[in-house]
Every structure is written in C-alpha cells, then in structure tokens.
Design goal:
Layout: H1 9-19, E1 28-33, E2 39-44, E3 50-55, H2 68-78, E4 88-92, H3 95-98, E5 102-106, H4 116-120, H5 124-142, H6 160-175, H7 181-192, E6 201-203, E7 212-215, E8 220-224, E9 231-233, H8 236-245, H9 268-279, H10 286-309, H11 319-342
Amino acid sequence: MSSIPGIDLESVTAWLDANVDGLEAPYDFSLIEGGRSNLTYMVTDGNGRCFVLRRPPLGHVLATAHDMAREHKIISAVGTTNVPVPQTLGLCSDDSVNQAPFYVMDFVDGVVLDSPEKGAELSVEQRELVAFNLIDVMADLHAVDVDAVGLGDLARREGYVERQVKRWTRQWADSRTRDLAAIDEVAELLAASIPEQQSVSIAHGDYRLGNCLTDLENNRIAAVLDWELCTLGDPLADLGYLGVYWADPEGNGQRSNDPTGAGQFPPYEQLVERYAARTGRDVSNIPYYVAFSAFRLAVISEGVYARYLHGAMGDDVDPEILDGFRDAVEELAVGALTRLRSGI
C-alpha cells in the first residue's frame, strides 16, 4: 500500500478498525476529488466494501471553512429524513490521528452530471425525469423541520438574504481586481429591495446536478453531496441558485459545469412552478433570488481569480483557467443586472 497525500495510513487504519463496525483492514485509498474544496477519498476495505472519507484540503486552511464536524452533523441529520444522502459511519475530531478531522460515510453509486457532455448522454425523457426529481428533492429538503432533526442551532434563522448581500458586498470590496460597474449596481439594487423571508429551512447553498449523484437506472437523485455551504436560511435562495446554472431548452447557459448546457432539459420556469406547487411558497420574486445567487457566485469567482493572480494557487497557472474566472465574473454580473432590471 503506497502512501497517499492527506492520509496517515497506519493511524487512520487503526481508527477505522476501532471506531466503525463492519470494516476490516487493509484499506485502499484513492483521491477522487481535490483542489480548493474538501478532499474526498474512495476507500475499499479488506472485504471489498466501499466507503468514502472526507477531510479538509492540505495546508493551512480556516477551520470554519472546512468544519468536518459540522458537515458530518448536517448529513447525519438530513439522513434521518426522506432526502437522499449517504449514511454517515463515523467522525474523527482528533487531529493527532490524521493531522486534521475527518469523517466517513457510505459509498453511493451514481453519476455526477457536471458537464453538457454528460447531459447529452441522457435521453430527453431522462432529462425531464431527473430535472423534476431534483426539484422534488429540493422541496423535501426545504420541508424538513430543522428543530426536529437537531439542526435548529446551526445558524441564525432570520435576515438571511440581507446578511448575505452585506457579506458579499464587503467581500467584493476586499477581493476586487478591477472596477466593474455592473457588480456595483447589482449590489445597490439587491440591497434596496431585500425580499421578506417567507420561512426558514435548511439551505444547501450549492444545490445543482453537479453536486448530486444521479441514479440513471431509475432517473432519480441517489444522493445530495457537498454540504460545506449549508446553513439555515431562505429556501428560495437554493431555488434561485439553481437558476444561475440552469440553461434554457436550447442549451444556452453561462455555466460550463452543468449538464443542462446539452439542451432539451425542461425550462427553469417549469422547475419553479413545480417547486411552488410542491411547497406552496410564493415564487413571484424568484428573479431577485437568481440575481442574488449570480452576484454571490460572481464575488466568489473574483476571489478565486484574485488568488490566482497573486500566486496563491501556485505559479503554473493555465491562462485559460485564469481567463475563465475573470470572464465568469463579468458574465454573472451582467446576468444579475439583467434579471433585476427586467424582473424575469
């Protein structure tokens, strides 16, 4: 067994043997996700059972940005509902075991639909069924009683969008690399028309097909992944965020990491209508939430672009990646401004 970055093989093996029932050494680890986010490893035990281990990125990171105990708590709580998530198997909060906390969960089989090319492999019927199930799962998530599942203390409940607009406006001021009038105007328009929060729910924060495992045998979401940004808040923020990624039926969209760019998926308006029918919520102001989500994503992209420019991501940077982040900021800003001005 060769060493693998981020895993102290001897210590982690001992911890797994002692703390997770049904597993048996030796364990084979392979990194399946890396980069700026938490690291995800596929692990196979001595009997061929597959499971997943998650830990923070290597190097110096903010603990609050990569809180393994919080992520484990959320997935464990959601796992008691009808929202599909992997079953958690254990949490290690002792840094001496692996230099950072980690948790383990069951492996869920499925496809990550994170590109137009993957979207093109689905039949038109599959595209509709998967899209509608994605919305149904979102509605189920937003119906969860946060107190009943033990997540009532996860975050502040009220004023979610107002706090977020202030936060990302400050973040833009701190990370901007150039002047963009569109961003400044979007921030002003968003702050001037904060919608009243209808209810409080678990807000995933990054809800889209690219963060789900999809069961293409049954055309259903097999598991919702990537709960790093999850909080309590306005449920319409998740619905608006999906609208930033969702391409129109012709495949015209801004995000290259979404399968709807293949075209022939249901229009976003149909998803919004289905969500409204499932939840009873007023969705008449959804263009605001799409614009808000585009603004937030633009500021995040600018932050990544700034770190690339300042060398924080290393010296060997692909110019296309750099240009992609820079252009994405401008495209998202223009898209947000269009939504706010037109109300559609």
